[in-house]
Amino acid sequence: MGHGGAGHEHAPGTAEHEDVVSSGGPPRVPGHLTADVSLGINLMRDARRRAKLVLQLDIENIADNVYVIAKEGEFSPSQYSIPRLLSVTARLRF
């Protein structure tokens, strides 16, 4: 950090050298695959056979794999994926 650029001088008695430049670009976070499931059921119907009450269960990240999804740099904290997430939704139409 802070090596090179305008006003860069070497201490007396040290050898001149080339600044190192990365050739591969920034390091990347490896990709991951997660499994998600969503189930729904119609519990009540009206006279026209349209659903009036619907229940839905969603499960995200079934295997509960927590992994790094983003890392800005050496001095910033990593961001991690969510652990297993369960949600239940009830939808009522009238």
Can you describe what's shown?
There is one protein chain. The chain has 94 residues and is mostly beta strands. It has a domain at 39-92. The chain is built from no helices and five strands. It has strands at residues 37-45, 51-60, 68-70, 79-80, 85-92. The strands form two sheets. A three-stranded antiparallel beta sheet has the order 1-2-5, with no helix packed on it. Strands 3-4 form a two-stranded antiparallel sheet. The mean pLDDT is 81.
What is the secondary structure topology, with strand pairs?
Elements: E1 37-45, E2 51-60, E3 68-70, E4 79-80, E5 85-92
Antiparallel strand pairs: 1-2, 2-5, 3-4
Low-pLDDT segments, ≥5 res? none
Total E-strand runs? 5
Task: Tell me the overall shape.
Answer: rod-shaped
Name the average pLDDT. 81
Strand content: 25-35%
Structural class of the secondary elements? Answer: mainly beta
Quick take:
The chain has strands at residues 37-45, 51-60, 68-70, 79-80, 85-92. It has 94 residues and is mostly beta strands.
Characteristics:
single chain, 94 residues, three-stranded antiparallel beta sheet, 5 strands, 34% strand
